[in-house]
Amino acid sequence: MGRVISVVALSALLAFTAGCNKKVSRVDTNAVTDLSGKWNDTDSRLVSREMIDDVLTRRWLTKFNRAKGKPPTVIVGTVRNLSHEHINTRTFIRDLEKELINSGEVEFVASASERDEIRSERRDQDLNASESTRKAMGNEAGADFMLKGTINTIVDAASGSQARFYQVDLTLIDLESNRKVWVGQKKIKKTVEKSSFGF
């Protein structure tokens, strides 16, 4: 009897293990893969593209170009995650930076953390590099504008379904006057149907 139970238990274990095997497939990095309904790489990419397209078509840019005769210099500041879920805002900030730089409409300067590393390198050059190749301190380009913002969410759940609402607010601020020259907003709404395994 004990041997029969052992065989049955082993068969059940093998069947369970076989059911747990994972299948991994490579997909195009631009493909939409919305598995959980949560914020994902597609949301980050599409929101950053749409919002940068919007900010670069507004009057602040032509006014600055006319007044200064050169493209503005921009830096991306903090994007705060005020949502109920974990969102990697660093990848969103990188998407914003990529869209801004690749537009060719603005100049771009390094972030605060990047500047620390670069300044350390210049200090090292000051001691160790030849005079002809040394990069001097005090010649950094200052930003004219800072882009910063927030990500918020609202979740509504009932009868085995969820509605997830994301709102991204970005503001472009003149660093000299603190004037807000552009305010952008993008909203995303997703519905998630509950499966037999839950959310």
TrEMBL record:
<dbReference type="Pfam" id="PF13036">
    <property type="entry name" value="LpoB"/>
</dbReference>
<protein>
    <submittedName>
        <fullName>Penicillin-binding protein activator LpoB</fullName>
    </submittedName>
</protein>
<dbReference type="InterPro" id="IPR014094">
    <property type="entry name" value="LpoB"/>
</dbReference>
